[in-house]
Amino acid sequence: MMNALIKSFGYAWKGIVVAIREQRNLRIHLSITSLVVAAGFYFHITAVEWCILLLSIGLVIGLELINSSIENLVDLVTRERQPLAGKVKDIAAGAVLIVSVISVIIGLIIFLPYISTLG
Ligand SMILES: Nc1ncnc2c1ncn2[C@@H]1O[C@H](COP(=O)(O)OP(=O)(O)OP(=O)(O)O)[C@@H](O)[C@H]1O
């Protein structure tokens, strides 16, 4: 039972590592995430602000992983150029884009008031 649980964490970790290795966008999101977390510590943002920030980060990174998974699934189904294959990938990428744009807006709403006190 415990063994199976540890094994499934291992598989999930393997998936995360391979996605980071293969997906440039994921690496970009992770770099931005570290900057945002550093800014959170620097400005001593509130507990509620941390929760909102962590939710956004989880959504972006989680969706990016699902997007990578869908890309691989499409490539498994066909390596040929097919409009439907492109559509599936583009819609999944669209999901990541929407959540990313909303996260940037959330980041601005949280950090702009702190940044404005710097000057
Ligand atoms: N099998 C396919 N058929 C049609 N369009 C595709 C296919 N695979 C990818 N595309 C299009 O290319 C975009 C990029 O896809 P992806 O990130 O998987 O790169 P890729 O498979 O390396 O494609 P390319 O080599 O042409 O850049 C997709 O959003 C989609 O618009």
UniProtKB/TrEMBL annotation:
Note accompanying the cofactor annotation: Mn(2+), Zn(2+), Cd(2+) and Co(2+) support activity to lesser extents.
Major location category of this protein: membrane
GO cellular component, one term: plasma membrane
InterPro entries found in the cross-reference section: DAGK, DAGK_sf, UDPK
Entry membrane topology: Multi-pass membrane protein
Pfam families the UniProt entry points to: DAGK_prokar (PF01219)
Cofactor: Mg(2+)
Domain of life: Bacteria
Record-listed substrate binding positions: E64
Sequence similarity: Belongs to the bacterial diacylglycerol kinase family.
Protein name in the entry: Diacylglycerol kinase (ATP)
